[in-house]
Amino acid sequence: MTDAPGRDYRGTVFLPQTPFPMRGDLPKREPGWLERWEKIGLWDRLRAQSAGREKFVLHDGPPYANGALHIGHALNKVLKDVINRAAQMSGKDAEYIPGWDCHGLPIEWKVEEEYRNPKGKYQGGRDKDAVPVLEFRAECRAYAAHWLDVQREEFKRLGVAGDWAGRYATMDFPSEAAIAGEIGKFLMNGSLYRGLRPVMWSPVEKTALAEAEVEYHDHKSAILYTGFPIVTAAAPDLVGAEAVIWTTTPWTIPANRALAYGGEIDYALLTVDGVAEGTTLVRPGQRFIVAEALIGAFAKEVGLAAFSVTRVFKGTELAGVIAAHPLRSWEGNQGGYQFEVPLLEGEFVTTEAGTGLVHMAPAHGEDDFHLTRAHGIAVPECVGDDGTYTVQAPGFAGLHVFKAHDAVWAALEATGHLAGKGFITHSYPHSWRSKKPVIFRATPQWFIAMDDANQIRAKSLQAIAETHFVPDMGRNRIGSMVAARPDWCISRQRAWGVPIAVFVEKRTGEVLRDQAVLDRVCAAFAEEGADAWYRPGAAARFLGPDRDPDAYEQVMDIVDVWFESGSTHAFVLRDRGLPVPADLYLEGSDQHRGWFHSSLLESVGANGFAPFKAILTHGFVLDETGRKMSKSLGNVTAPQEVTKQYGADILRLWVMNSDTADDLRIGKNILAQQAELYRRIRNTLRWLLGNLDGFEEGEKLPHAELPELERWVLHRLTELDDRLRKAVRDYDWNGVYPEIHAFCATDLSAFYFDIRKDSLYCDAADSPRRRAARTVLDALHRCLTTWLAPVMPFTAEEAWLARFPSEDGSVHLEDFFAVPAEWRDEALAAKWEQVREARRGATQLLELDRKEGRIGSSLQARVRFGTAGEAARLLPPELWEEVLIVSEVAIEPPGGAQPEVATDPAPGQKCERCWRVLPEVGASAAHPTLCRRCEAVVERAAA
Question: Is the pTM of this model over 0.70?
Fold first, then answer.
C-alpha cells in the first residue's frame, strides 16, 4: 500500500480494532464470567433494579435429586433460562426460584441398594425393615442433599440464572409443613377419603404407584382359556355348558368372583364334535358359550376340529345365570371356591378379542371392581403387598403371582375346565424405577375425589380450556387424561416423604377432621420437619389433651410425590409473595400426566383455580439417528462433556436452534454444526466491535439523514425486534434464533458489511457516509448483544463489556434495545428486496469473470445496466457501485442492443489505498497512486 519507497498509507486506513478475540475459548472463559457475576451480585442487583416492575413468574418444576444432570435436564433448564432472561430484558421483573423434588421411592431405592450392596458401606448387612424409620429417613435426606448440591452447581455452570441461594426443596421443613397443610385442605373440605380400590401396585417396591410412575414395555405373559360351568339358568340348555373366558393374567383366576357379558352381543352355544390332532385340553361333547363373532378364533386357539352351533342368542339371556368357579372341584382347593359366580352385564365387554365373556377379579381390575361392587360382591384380598398369594387364594398361598401360571394351569386341567394355554408378548405396565412389571391390586388407599361437591374434574377441565398451551395440542392431551381419570390415589406405603398426617377413629372408622389438630401438625413440621410424625408420643402430641391416642389410628402412609410437587405453588409462590397463578409452567411433554396434571388437580381442589396461566412443553432428546439414548448403546451425550469440550453457550445455542416442541437430536456432528453457527455469530460481533472502535455519541446521524442502505438495515431490526417480542409474549421461540443467525450471516456479513467495508476503512473519519454506517453499527451492537444475551449469556457479556468496559456493569442489567417505530419502512424494504435480486444477477456475472481470469476481484470490474432494465430505475450508478462493490457502474444510453446487465474490466489504475480502479488515479502529483477520495483523506490527516 505504498506509491513509492518510503511512503506507506497503511496507517491512514481505519482497520478494525477490538479486544474481543476471534476464538471464544468458552470452556476456559465461562467459569470466569460466573465468578464475576457472583462477585458483582448480579442476581440481587437485578431484583433491586426491577422493583416496581410487573412480575413474571416461571414456576420451576422440580427435578429429582438423585444423580448427575442428563441432557434432558439441560434442555429444560436452558429453555427456562432463555424465557426468564428474555422476560427480564423486555421490562419485567423475572424472579425465578429453582427447586428440587427430594422425597419418594427412587431415593429410598438407592439407600436400600446401599444396604444390599456387598461392597457398599454396610457390606450388604442391613435389613431395611429393621432400620429405625427416623434413621432411614435421615439417610434419605442426606442422599438427596448431596445430589441437590451437585445438580445446583451443574445448572449454574450452564449459565442458568436464578435465586440459587433461595432455592426450594420439598424436603425443607417449611415445605413439608406446607404440603401437610395442602393435604389438610382436602381433609377439611371432605374430598380426602380412604377407600378400597384397585391401584397400580409394585410387588418389588411394595407400594402403590401413580400412572406417571409407570412405563410400558413388551412383556411375555401366560394366557389361558377356561370354562365356568353353568349351574343355574332360565334356559335349560345352558345348564352344564361352560361360559369360556380368556385372560392374560392367569394368576387372577383364584380371585374371580363373577363373569361379564355384553347385553347386545350375539352368543353361541356350541358343542365340540372333534378336536385337532395333539389337542388334549378340550374333549368331544363339551358345550361352550362364546361370542358368535369369535367362534373361529376360539376354535383355532383351543384346537377344535369340528363343532356344531346349537343356537345363537343375545347376551341379555345370560341375565341371572349362575356359574361355578372352575376350581370348585379341585382337590387342592382346601374347601375354597365353593361360592357362586354370577354373570353380570358389563358395558365394557366387546368382541375385539378373547371370547366375548370377561372374568371379573374385583381386586385386580378397575372394571372388575366397579361392576362387582355394584352388585354387592365382596372384594377378596388374594394377593399380598409382596405379590404372593394370601390364604384367601386356597391352594396357592405363598406362591408369587408372576410364577403362578403353571400351578393355575395344572389346577384347571385337573378339574377338566382348562381349554387352552400359552404365552403372548404384549405391552405391559412396569415401574419406571425398578423396571419390573406391576399388578392391579385392591388395597385400602387414600384418595382425593374427582367428582364430589368440590368438582375437581369439572373445574380442572374448565381451567384447561382457559390455559394458553404451547404447542396447543397439549390442551387435548391433558384434557383427555383429566376427563377419563379415576379418583386420585395419593397414598404410598413407604417411609421417605411427607406423611398423610391424619387420624382415623378406630371405633367408627371415621376420619378425624379437626383444624386444631391440623394446625398443631403443620406448626411442628415447620420447626422439626415431617420427622415429628414418627417420633414417640406423636399421636398424643397432635391429638391434644382432649382425645385418647389409643382410640385413634395414626396413618403412616406417605403422600404421593406427585401431590408434593403438585403443591409447590403453595409454598414457592404464595408463601414468598409471588403472583398466583404463575405466568408459565414449562416441562417435557410427559408431564401432561405428571407435574402439570398433579399441579392442576391440587390447586383446583385446594383453591378453585389452576396454578398456571400458560403451559409450554418440549420434546425429548434423542441421538443423531433418532434413537433413544442409553449407556448400552454408547450414544449418550452428557451436558458436562459438552460444556467441557465446547462451552455452555454452544449447548444453549443448540437448544434454541432446535424445534423444542418436537423431539430434539444431539451428537458430535450436530454439536460441530452448532459450533460453526456460533463462530459466524461471534465473527459478526467481532466485526461490529472492531468497526466501532472510538465511536462516540456525537457521531450519530438522525434517521432522516441516513442513506437508504442504512435505513434498510434499521428496518430489518424492527422486523427481528417484533419477532423476538412476540416470542416473549407467546412463549413460542421456534425459529427465532435461527432467524437472528441468518440475519447475521446473510443480511450483515454477506451483504451490508461487505458493502460498507470500503466506507468504514477508507472514508474520512467524519464523512457522512462513514458516520451513517457507524450509527447503524452502534444500533446493531446494542440489539444483537441484548438479543443474544438470553441464549448466549457468556458471549453477549463479553461482547458488551468489550465496548462498554466496567467493573460492575453487565449486559444482563440492560433491557432489549428500544427500536424506534420510525425505523419501520415497508416500502423501502420492498425496494431493497428488488435491489438485492438485481445484485444477485450482476454478482453471478462477476463471479464468472473471476473464475475465467478476466478480473481478480470485483473492484477490477465495471458493470453496465441497460436503461430498459429494472436495475437502472432502482439506484443511481454511484450507489450501484457501492452495492456491487465495483469501481464503475454505467447506465447504457438508449438505443442499440442494450444488455440488461453486462460486465467488463474497469478503466483506469488501481488506488493503492482503497483498491478501486479509476481513471483519476495518477492525476495527483503528491499522491500519484491514490484516487481523489483517498488523496483528500490522507492530506487532511497530515494537516
Answer: yes
